[in-house]
User: Which sequence fits this backbone?
C-alpha cells in the first residue's frame, strides 16, 4: 500500500471521527437551547367540554344498543325455549327445519352484535381523532409562538426534563376558543 493511501485513510478516519464528535458536542448545547413542551392528553379528554359532550352522546348510544341487544337476545332465547318445549310434537323434518332456522337467527344476531360493536368502536376512534386534530391545530399556533421545538404527550414519557413546560392549560384554552368560534359562525346554506 502506498504511503499516500495510508495518509489518505488516516485523514479520512480522523475527519470522520471529528465529524462524528461535532453532533455529540453540539447535542448538549442543542438540548440546552431546545424548548420542550408537554401536554397531558388524559386531562384534555377529561376537561374539554366538546369531548365530554361527544363521550356522553356515545355512551347514550352504547346504552341504547345494549338495550336493543338484550331485547334481541331475550327474543332469541324465547324462540329456542319454545322450540325445545315443542320439539317432541314435531316431525323429524320439521325439527331440522326449525333447528336450521334458529341457527340462522343465531348467526344473524351474532353478525348484528359484531356490526354494532364495530360501529361504536369506529365512532369512538373518530371522536379521538377529532380531538387529536383540535390539539394539533392548537399546537400549530402555541408551539411556534412559544418557541417550542417539540411538544410531546406527558403520559408517554418515562422522564421529562424539569424545564419541559406543561402546555395543557394553553391547549385547553385554545380548543375552547376554537369550539366557541365554530359554534358562533353561521352555517353556510347547502344547495
Assistant:
Amino acid at each position: 500500500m502506498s504511503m499516500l493511501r495510508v495518509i489518505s485513510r488516516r485523514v479520512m478516519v480522523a475527519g470522520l471521527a471529528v465529524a462524528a464528535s461535532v453532533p455529540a458536542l453540539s447535542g448538549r448545547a442543542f438540548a440546552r437551547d431546545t424548548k420542550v413542551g408537554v401536554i397531558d392528553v388524559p386531562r384534555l379528554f377529561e376537561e374539554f367540554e366538546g369531548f365530554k359532550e361527544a363521550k356522553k352522546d356515545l355512551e347514550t348510544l352504547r346504552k341504547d344498543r345494549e338495550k336493543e341487544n338484550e331485547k334481541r337476545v331475550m327474543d332469541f332465547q324465547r324462540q329456542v325455549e319454545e322450540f325445545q318445549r315443542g320439539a317432541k310434537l314435531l316431525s323429524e323434518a320439521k325439527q331440522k327445519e326449525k333447528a336450521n332456522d334458529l341457527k340462522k337467527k343465531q348467526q344473524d344476531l351474532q353478525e348484528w352484535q359484531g356490526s354494532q360493536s364495530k360501529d361504536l368502536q369506529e365512532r369512538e376512534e373518530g371522536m379521538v381523532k377529532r380531538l387529536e386534530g383540535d390539539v394539533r391545530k392548537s399546537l400549530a399556533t402555541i408551539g411556534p409562538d412559544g418557541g417550542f421545538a417539540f411538544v410531546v404527550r406527558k403520559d408517554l414519557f418515562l422522564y421529562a426534563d424539569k424545564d419541559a413546560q406543561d402546555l395543557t392549560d394553553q391547549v385547553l384554552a385554545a380548543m375552547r376558543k376554537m369550539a366557541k368560534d365554530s359554534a358562533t359562525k353561521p352555517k353556510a346554506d347547502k344547495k
Summary: The first helix runs from residue 3 to 33. The chain is about 75% helix and 5% strand. Helices lie at 3-33, 41-47, 49-86, 92-146, 168-184.
